[in-house]
Amino acid sequence: MADPVLVGDIGGTNVRFAIARRGFAGHCTVSDVSVMPGDGFDKFDDALNTYCDHIGKTCPERALIALAGPVDEGHVKLTNRDWIVDEKRLEANTGLKRVRLVNDYAAMARAIPELPESDFRLLQAGDPDESEREPILVSGPGTGVGMATLIPVGTTNWRVLTGEGGHAAFAPFNDRERALAVKLEESHGYVSRELVLSGSGLNAVHKALCDIDGVEWEELPPAEIMKRAGQGDRICRDICEIRARGTLYALGDAALMNGTKGGVVVTGGVAERLADWLAAPEALERFNNRGPMSDYMHPIPIRLLLSGEAALVGAAALHFDEGTAG
């Protein structure tokens, strides 16, 4: 059996670590999971050393860390946190023999074939061709918006293509969304999907809608916005609808462009909180309605990922795929 590997999932809010192993059936399992707020550390090296110290003598010699930012020759600047992470520096500062850095959505996407169906909520059953292995789109709003495509290789293997689709331009659908886009452009210039759909843009969207409606803005936590939306508050309801419908609108575009007929997996903490809004017929219509290409969209299954450990599992799978253990 392959040696265990230290895996990490580093987002804009939390830092997750675990020890991963490949089981006899070939699927990856994780243990010793630790979740820590990123705000508790000045730099990522400190967080990794804290976990290594906690594990002690049983800490693996190799690590694969998935981070929310583009990877450039073993170097990552996180998109939503002021951290710069470097493979060689980590090897020098932690005592690990080998550290590999990957984009967080490379790990998130690679996890999908490893997870049981119980880790998903079905939003649209679709009608996929079970006789073919087709690409799968993995994307959704958390602190930011990540995106990757899972591409089948041969009969059992997978390859991951990552991108920065969350930073593509936000496409408004109706008058309310067009007014929001105009207001956000005044304060932010470029209006990305991430600004409108993710946790990092929540206050900006809320404030913009309050300005449009002539209502005094007060900062509200996400849970309070959800609560008020359920009670019928117009602005809070609009926030939930815009984010849920906008997410499926954006993922419909990506699925159409990438030909991900194998399915779409919606990810991220924001998406989980918006589960019922995502499942609404109006949101699913945003995904499916593509004029003459609508028949192309309806067979694509859409699932919502509910596992908080998915990226850790995917990081392990990437490690063992490359045969770097041992």
Main traits of this protein?
single chain; 326 residues; alpha/beta; Hexokinase, domain 1; six-stranded mixed sheet; five-stranded mixed sheet; 13 strands; globular
Protein described:
- With 326 residues, this protein is of the alpha/beta class.
- It has two domains: 5-110 and 309-321, ATPase, nucleotide binding domain (Nucleotidyltransferase, domain 5); 118-306, Hexokinase, domain 1 (3-Layer(aba) Sandwich).
- Helices cover 39% and strands 24% of the residues.
- The chain is built from 13 helices and 13 strands.
- It has helices at residues 44-55, 87-94, 104-111, 175-188, 193-197, 202-213, 222-230, 234-258, 269-273, 275-278, 281-288, 294-297, 310-321, and strands at 5-10, 14-22, 28-37, 62-67, 75-77, 84-86, 98-103, 120-124, 136-141, 145-153, 157-163, 263-266, 302-305.
- The strands form three sheets. It has a six-stranded mixed beta sheet, sandwiched between helices. A five-stranded mixed beta sheet has the order 3-2-1-4-7, sandwiched between helices. The chain has a two-stranded antiparallel ribbon with strand order 5-6.
- A hairpin with a 6-residue loop joins strand 5 (75-77) and strand 6.
- Helix 3 (104-111) packs across helix 13 (310-321) and helix 4 (175-188) crosses helix 6.
- It is globular, with a radius of gyration of 20 Å.
- The mean pLDDT is 92.
